[in-house]
Amino acid sequence: MSKDSKRPPLRRRPRWLAPLVIAAVCHAGALAALPETAFAQGAKSVTTLIQRGAELFDDQAYEESIQTLSAALMRPGTSKQDKIEIYRLLAYNYITLRRADEADAAVRGLLVLDESYNLPPTESPRFRDFFSATRKKWEEEGKPGKVDETKPVALEKPVKIAHSSPAQVEPNSTIKLSATVDDPGARVGSMQLAYRTGAKGKYVTITGTYAAGSFRAQIPGAAVKPPLVEYYLLATDKDGLPLASRGDADTPLRIAVPEPSGGVLSSPWFWIPVGVLVVGGAVATTIFLTQQRDTAAVSIRVTE
Question: Which of 25, 50, 171, 190 is deepest in the core (most CB within 10 A)?
Fold first, then answer.
């Protein structure tokens, strides 16, 4: 009897497994190749977001404009000129909504970047008067936040949000979310959760529970409908201006919500990057493939 005849017969893997493995490997490779900024913050340019924010303001969609402009402000590498335009538009939104404290903070943010900035004479007196009043207070207070360019500048450590979300939840179930916030300068005043059902429409924004670097909030079951839920987390300062985010209005985190008869692999949203834990550095992805009898399972684990 030959040696080969003594070997146990090889168990054939189900044919349907191959495409799943290929898809999983491709998906994992893409995750591992992308840095955090590309994965969590999306591909649209800052200019596009600013234009969109301006259009939403013109359409009187003020909350959506604020969300879009906040996303632009959080993009890494945003230029000084772009930030000035973002703060101007944010101030317009807040003034229109009669949110004076946040409008004041936006104007101050602009003046810190360019204290010589003035609105054109053709601009609405409502905006010009507010900008002038804020400038006067800012100057009387000694121009807080203004950097003396003749002296060495101490770099502020960035705020970081560590968060992991479920890949899939059942329809109508409450989604409990948590995050850990690294805030070296103690600048975070509050943490917000913005969510929506599906990939279109307005985000509902709520303020979660935040204390000692720990954040908790819930997406109510009424908003959890197939095929998915989109959301993002936003850390703001004491004046309501954005400091850091996980996801944003333009590139939110996603949780698959399958139909009652389906599963995570049956949902096309499973193969779109959803909320995984990414906190600086590269993303490492490990794939495990197991098989028992006539069934097989693919699991993907994403770690820092």
Answer: 50
Q: How many CB atoms lie within 10 A of CB 68?
A: 27
The DSSP call for residue 116 is T
Are 180 and 235 in contact by the 8 Å Cβ rule? The answer is no
Three-class SS state of 80: helix
d(CA 116, CA 131): 12
What is the CB neighbour count within 10 angstroms for residue 170? 11
Q: Tokens standing for 83?
A: 């930030």
Residue 61 has pLDDT above 70, yes or no: yes
User: What is the CB-side half-sphere exposure of residue 65 using CA atoms within 13 A?
Assistant: 23
Question: What are phi and psi for residue 186, nearest 5 degrees?
Answer: 50, 45
SS3 127: helix
Band of pLDDT at residue 150, cut at 50, 70 and 90: low
Instruction: From residue 164, give the alpha-carbon distance in Å to each of 117, 231, 300.
Output: 41, 12, 14
Question: Residue 89 to residues 1, 83, 264, 277: CA-CA distances in angstroms?
Answer: 83, 10, 41, 32
Q: Higher pLDDT residue, 167 or 191?
A: 191
φ and ψ of 291, to 5 deg: -145, 135
Task: Choose among 42, 31, 34, 28: nearest CA to 245.
Answer: 42
Return the bridge partners of 195, or none: 204, 231
Q: Are strands 160-163 and 284-292 parallel, antiparallel or unpaired?
A: unpaired
Question: What is the identity of the amino acid at 168?
Answer: Q
Place of tokens 């705020």: 159
Q: What is the pLDDT of residue 155?
A: 75
DSSP E strands: which ranges in the chain? 160-163, 175-182, 188-197, 204-207, 209-211, 214-219, 228-237, 242-246, 253-256, 284-292, 295-303
pTM for this entry: 0.70
Residue type, 257: V
CA 288, CA 12: separation in Å to the nearest integer? 18
Structural domains in the chain, sorted by start: 43-140 (1.25.40.10), 156-261 (2.60.40.1930)
Are the C-beta atoms of 140 and 108 separated by less than 8 Å? no
